[in-house]
Amino acid sequence: xxxxxxxxxxxxxxxxxxxxxxxxxxxxxxxxxxxxxxxxxxxxxxxxxxxxxxxxxxxxxxxxxxxxxxxxxxxxxxxxxxxxxxxxxxxxxxxxxxxxxxxxxxxxxxxxxxxxxxxxxxxxxxxxxxxxxxxxxxxxxxxxxxxxxxxxxxxxxxxxxxxxxxxxxxxxxxxxxxxxxxxxxxxxxxxxxxxxxxxxxxxxxxxxxxxxxxxxxxxxxxxxxxxxxxxxxxxxxxxxxxxxxxxxxxxxxxxxxxxxxxxxxxxxxxxxxxxxxxxxxxxxxxxxxxxxxxxxxxxxxxxxxxxxxxxxxxx
Length: 315
Prior knowledge:
- With about 325 residues, the protein is of the alpha+beta class.
- It has helices at about 35-40, 105-110, 120-125, 130-150, 220-235, 285-290, 305-315, and strands spanning about 25, 45-50, 80-85, 100-105, 160, 165-170, 175, 180-190, 195-200, 210-215, 240-250, 255-265, 280-285.
- The strands form 4 sheets. It has a 4-stranded mixed sheet with strand order 1-3-4-2, with helices on one face. A 4-stranded mixed sheet has the order 10-8-12-11, sandwiched between helices. Strands 5-6-7 form a 3-stranded antiparallel sheet, with no helix packed on it.
- It starts with about 25 loop residues before the first strand and ends with a helix.
């Protein structure tokens, strides 16, 4: 049952998350061209984005932008993927510029720049423009997939890249392996006083708090996952899950789906962190979070921070 009074206006606007932005035509039809990468390397308009351990380089400029390379200046790599064509009107590269991602090793990465100059989505996701944020997430996700899928799951033979790096095929039985995405829910749980539930993970500093989250299990809806995960991690029974928005998180292959849910005032429950993932749980008022700088909240690139900030901005 949906209680319309439980859906204040502040939750109804679309949720804009940093890593959901894009200004790229993925140009999927071109992936089928058999000589695609030879054509792209021969095209002086092509730009190459090297990825190392989920990180990329940025230009030393007033505006934070990804460092892209001409094909002749980029390292060679056996792991390459066609990202599509730029649609950005604000980038240095013209609309239609072909974009290629490559996954490189440590030696090639350090030949391009010192290790401290390689940055990840946590540092860059909220400050890049739409085009660069989009291709960075896309490239990191594909690089992680290629790293973890080298052999056929059926026969164990090495997989060969096809379709612009978007399909892997086994040479013996023709098995095709496609990129995967693992859905996870992340939830703003509110009580009857409009306080927000935040938890501290076992792997964090004890003053760092965030929303509770968890993976969707096979055969489970997103809404059912919200109810189950919140009870498993906190002991709280929630009702009325409402979708807020989503954001890819390619470490290695998650899609974070944001919800708001209410602690059920009609059921008996007691708040109890699971003791494994979540060591501490607290209900926060806005005044408590705004007034105590010692609490560490999620970074600006995360969907958790976007949801928390929306709640904080309400009257």
